[in-house]
């Protein structure tokens, strides 16, 4: 597959006439995948819909709008990509729609973000949830790291200081099953005495932190640079650690955007004196992959034929090598290496396949900590 | 200071170059259109513009986006005043006094007063923004979780002024509004409350649908039953200068409400809908003669219109200074900022000062342009009030259904609109104040989460914070003013005017009251109250099954509702004398050709039609059938109306990538998208 992707990239870059490119591309596919279909996907004159299971505005929507714009010229036939927002039920509505109705000829793709995948992981028995993200075919995956920082009034300077801190740290939390839940769980596993202030959304978390009413906060990398960096420069906030980043072998290493900050795994070792292990580590790993490595992905529906998937994979591979994309995309997707093709697909599968024991561990934790029965 | 002046004028000069002005105008035009169409608003407008901003120079993209946002609250006044359709979530308050004015044949006066006030409010908002970007940071940071909670409670006391004829019914409606607002995901625990297993209710009842269902749908039916044209005199009225003079006469009111709007806009979490209700309450509270509010008092229109345009300027403050959006459209604007490479934050008042001033100037100029365009539009549009209503009504129904469908773009939106519309029709008939319900609904979520936050961070000690004490004192004053005002009120009468008794209380002397009508005659309103009791009891029953934290707020709101509903029911059943809680407009009504039920059946038929042949075709059939039955020939005119609307729907489907609800037909045959 990799050779085929490169092949396509070369063809598209060399600006051979579209028709020739198409023919050669088709041959390439037949040769590499050995698929029954000899015809390659072509989207000329097509209108492709990118399904966003949220209303307009917000992270997933902005991300998809940006990606749709830069992806369109990379797809064979340069189709028009329009956004279709299907809000409702905290992304359940749109995800269900995508599972049931998405065309499998490449004219539909969707954005899968942490809220969607986390919902299906936690509420696997809810009859309203009729989508299976583990079957979706990701063709581009955008990891997004997370930094945890405290207010300087706590006097905490680093992870060691966190270990010795006797008081209670106040942290805003949307709700116990929302997309910021993995952050809380990570802190509790470290043994930090955190008190979540429930019903606090992102904006209030920042304002509350700036007012000193909240003493701990977490930001994804892109927001961190914009919102938290000025506070750190002003001495109001102190960064402690990042959630980390999974390298090619699946090892949790330091976040490439913050090489000076320890990862959560290192923080665990500093505080507990040993490496994390067992079911609780499995649970953490699953949530880590959900919220960091597969923070956002663009996916095709299950059952999409190989030639269409190949066309999307090639477009994605082409896109991430694009000079303009490299230069401007940081603001939208963070400066992380983007996953494409098989790597993106694998990452989403890893993120969405939690073991039954680990899932039980998480739901038990929610039950015991918040009396929420899922 | 020198650096500021260095940025002010170049930004203005730059804006007056051909390209910038063109972009600004384009934004204004789009803003006007999406403002007029109900259900579409800043969110839809900005998503339409975003794809074009990618490759634009930052200042041009800004001119376009701000140009779009600024006139939204100006143009949504047109359907609100002329047709009682709140064009967006805002505009609901404008209906209260604006529409009765149109009914009196004073549409022109109401519109010109509204647009002048809008313009002043908008420019004032831009003015406030100019200073606020430098000084507001400390203000916003001094308003903590405790203060925010107290401000929400203060806003709730505003309802004391807007209870309608019967205070008991008003407060009950407000409590039920709070209860209705708890439907959906609980702010603290994320549990789904009262969703009855549906995904649709998981995000709560969409505010737009509540507004359309409670206000617009009952008004459509009422007009169909009683009137030939919207304007009772059949005249448009020559009120242009009059409206202008109204605004000038009430200039201090305009400035006061502009300031209030800008201030509320600045505080994240309350939103523009809450801002309008608070302003309206303030206008009523500070007016000496309250008797005309809800019946067409021009001050109600002026105050709210000035405030809602000022809100935009105010809500830009947290967006620009902290990168924290105060509303849905601000969230998209923030996305737009990122797309064109602007980082909101402290830099907006230092190195990016030119951008800030481009925004401020764009806001001011767009407000002036928007109001000017509305002046031009208003005259032809006001003619709607003199056209036979049965011709307009089916088009209005089409617009209502279209607007409701924009909420989540699902079939359930149409069902929700119909159900809420039915509730609205009977609330209106039995004198239940709909504004009070809406105020409760609008503030419900904010109140619940702010109480949680304040209690979790401070416990009870938040009551010792000076800011909290000051706002609490204001809230108490506001409540006291209500009682004081009630004592000095003129005696009211049981009048059968439309909705007028839903805003202002009347004093009622029980000793001189006439005897109550017979139990038989009272039975419809008693039945309606019983249904309300039943719904509240069901809510309570389900609330007990929730976790402690998720259930406490609906339990409190539910028991409060019940505590108020029981005495109302008691009076309605047992009182031998007529009381303010007893209202049934059908008793005193003149005989009409058709009943409420007759028109509700038409809407039911429309829904069934949509289920069969999809939205576009069903609407076309509905318009044709309705006009033919109720107005008559010529058939070609009726067909033209139907065809024209489908054409407009088709164009919008393409431009905005909209889908319409599909029916059985679409499952069998593959039709073009705009027919689906």
TrEMBL record, chain A:
Keywords from UniProt, A to Z, are: Signal
- Coiled-coil stretches: none
Q: Which domain of life is it from?
A: Bacteria
Q: Where is the signal peptide, in residue numbers?
A: 1-38
Family assignment? Belongs to the UPF0065 (bug) family.
Identification of the protein by name = Tricarboxylate transporter
TrEMBL record, chain B:
Q: Which InterPro entries match?
A: DUF112_TM
Annotated signal sequence range? none
One Pfam entry for this protein is TctA
Bilayer-spanning residue ranges: 20-40, 52-72, 111-133, 139-159, 171-190, 196-217, 320-342, 354-378, 384-404, 467-485, 524-541, 553-574, 599-632, 639-660
Q: What does the UniProt keyword field contain?
A: Membrane, Transmembrane, Transmembrane helix
In this chain the DUF112 domain maps to 21-438
Name the PANTHER family for this protein.
Answer: TRICARBOXYLIC TRANSPORT PROTEIN (PTHR35342)
User: What is this protein identified as?
Assistant: DUF112 domain-containing protein
């Amino acid at each position: 597959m990799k050779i085929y992707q490169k092949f396509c990239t070369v063809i598209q870059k060399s600006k051979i006439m579209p028709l020739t490119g198409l023919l050669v591309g088709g041959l390439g596919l037949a040769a590499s995948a050995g698929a029954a279909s000899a015809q390659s996907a072509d989207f000329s004159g097509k209108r492709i819909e990118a399904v966003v299971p949220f209303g307009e505005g917000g992270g997933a929507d902005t991300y998809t709008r940006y990606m749709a714009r830069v992806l369109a010229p990379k797809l064979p036939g340069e189709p028009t990509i329009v956004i279709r927002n299907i809000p409702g039920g905290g992304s359940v509505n749109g995800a269900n729609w995508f599972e049931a109705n998405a065309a499998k000829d490449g004219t539909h793709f969707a954005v899968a973000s942490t809220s969607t995948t986390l919902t299906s992981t936690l509420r696997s028995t809810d009859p309203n949830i009729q989508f299976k993200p583990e079957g979706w075919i990701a063709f581009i995956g955008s990891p997004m790291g997370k930094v945890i920082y405290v207010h300087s009034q706590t006097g905490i300077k680093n992870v060691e200081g966190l270990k010795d801190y006797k008081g209670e740290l106040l942290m805003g939390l949307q709700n116990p099953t929302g997309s910021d839940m993995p952050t809380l769980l990570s802190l509790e596993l470290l043994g930090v005495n955190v008190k979540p202030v429930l019903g606090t959304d992102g904006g209030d978390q920042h304002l509350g932190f700036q007012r000193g009413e909240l003493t701990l906060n977490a930001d994804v990398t892109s927001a961190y640079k914009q919102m938290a960096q000025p506070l750190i420069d002003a001495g109001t906030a102190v960064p402690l650690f990042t959630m980390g980043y999974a390298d090619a072998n699946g090892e949790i290493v330091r976040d490439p955007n913050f090489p000076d900050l320890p990862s959560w795994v290192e923080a665990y070792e500093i505080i507990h004196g040993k490496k994390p292990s067992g079911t609780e580590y499995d649970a953490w790993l699953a949530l880590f992959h959900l919220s960091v490595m597969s923070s956002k992905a663009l996916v095709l529906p299950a059952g999409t034929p190989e030639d269409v998937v190949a066309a999307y994979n090639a477009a994605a591979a082409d896109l991430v090598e694009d000079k303009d994309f490299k230069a401007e995309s940081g603001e939208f997707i963070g400066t992380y290496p983007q996953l494409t093709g098989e790597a993106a697909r694998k990452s989403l599968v890893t993120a969405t396949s939690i073991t039954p024991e680990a899932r039980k561990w998480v739901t038990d934790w929610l039950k015991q900590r918040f009396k929420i029965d899922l | 200071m020198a650096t500021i002046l260095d940025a002010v004028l170049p930004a203005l000069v730059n804006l007056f170059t051909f390209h910038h002005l063109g972009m600004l105008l384009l934004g204004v035009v789009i803003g006007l259109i999406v403002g007029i169409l109900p259900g579409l608003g800043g969110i839809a407008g900005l998503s339409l513009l975003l794809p074009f901003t990618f490759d634009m120079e930052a200042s041009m993209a800004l001119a376009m986006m701000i140009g779009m946002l600024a006139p939204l609250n100006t143009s949504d006044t047109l359907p609100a005043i002329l047709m009682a359709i709140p064009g967006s979530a805002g505009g609901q308050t404008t209906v209260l006094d604006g529409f009765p004015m149109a009914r009196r044949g004073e549409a022109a006066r109401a519109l010109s007063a509204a647009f002048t006030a809008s313009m002043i409010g908008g420019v004032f908002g831009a003015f406030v923004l100019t200073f606020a970007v430098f000084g507001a940071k400390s203000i916003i940071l001094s308003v903590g979780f405790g203060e925010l909670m107290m401000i929400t409670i203060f806003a709730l006391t505003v309802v004391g002024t807007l209870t309608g004829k019967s205070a008991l019914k008003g407060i009950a409606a407000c409590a039920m509004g709070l209860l209705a607002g708890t439907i959906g995901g609980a702010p603290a625990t994320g549990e789904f409350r009262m969703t009855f297993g549906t995904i649709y209710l998981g995000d709560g009842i969409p505010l737009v649908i509540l507004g359309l269902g409670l206000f617009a749908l009952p008004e459509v039916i009422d007009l169909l039953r009683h009137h030939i044209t919207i304007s009772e005199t059949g005249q448009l009225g020559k009120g242009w200068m009059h409206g202008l003079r109204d605004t000038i006469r009430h200039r201090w009111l305009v400035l006061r409400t502009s300031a209030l709007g800008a201030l509320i806009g600045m505080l994240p979490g309350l939103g523009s809908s809450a801002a309008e209700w608070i302003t309206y309450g303030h206008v009523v509270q500070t007016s000496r003669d309250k008797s005309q509010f809800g019946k067409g008092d021009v001050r109600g229109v002026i105050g709210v219109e000035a405030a809602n345009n000022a809100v935009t300027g105010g809500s830009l403050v947290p967006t620009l200074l902290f990168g924290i959006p105060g509303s849905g459209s601000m969230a998209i604007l923030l996305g737009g900022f990122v797309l064109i490479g602007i980082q909101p934050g402290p830099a907006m008042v230092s190195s990016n000062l030119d951008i800030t001033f481009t925004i401020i100037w764009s806001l001011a100029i767009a407000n002036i342009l928007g109001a000017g365009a509305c002046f031009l539009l208003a005259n032809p549009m006001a003619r709607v009030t003199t056209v036979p209503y049965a011709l307009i009504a089916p088009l209005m129904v089409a617009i209502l259904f279209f607007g409701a469908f924009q909420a989540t773009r699902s079939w359930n939106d149409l069902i929700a609109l119909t159900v809420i519309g039915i509730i609205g029709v009977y609330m209106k008939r039995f004198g239940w104040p709909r504004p009070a319900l809406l105020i409760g609904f609008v503030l419900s979520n904010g109140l619940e989460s702010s109480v949680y936050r304040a209690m979790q961070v401070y416990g009870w000690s938040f009551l010792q914070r000076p800011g909290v004490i000051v706002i609490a004192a204001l809230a108490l004053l506001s409540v006291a003013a209500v009682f004081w005002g009630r004592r000095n009120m003129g005696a009211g009468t049981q009048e059968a005017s439309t909705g007028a008794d839903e805003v202002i209380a009347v004093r009622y002397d029980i000793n001189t009251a006439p005897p109550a009508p017979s139990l038989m005659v009272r039975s419809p309103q008693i039945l309606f109250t019983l249904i309300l009791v039943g719904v509240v009891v069901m809510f309570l029953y389900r609330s007990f099954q929730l976790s402690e934290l998720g259930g406490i707020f609906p339990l409190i709101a539910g028991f409060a509702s019940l505590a108020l509903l029981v005495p109302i029911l008691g009076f309605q059943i047992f009182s031998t004398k007529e009381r303010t809680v007893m209202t049934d407009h059908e008793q005193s009504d003149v005989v009409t050709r058709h009943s409420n039920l007759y028109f509700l059946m038409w809407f039911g038929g429309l829904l069934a039609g949509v289920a069969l042949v999809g939205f576009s075709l069903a609407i076309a059939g509905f318009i044709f059938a309705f006009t033919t039955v109720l107005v008559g020939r010529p058939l070609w005119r009726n067909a033209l109306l139907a065809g024209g609307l489908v054409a407009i729907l088709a164009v919008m489907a393409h431009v905005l990538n909209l889908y319409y609800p599909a029916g059985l037909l679409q499952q069998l045959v593959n039709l073009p998208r705009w027919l689906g």
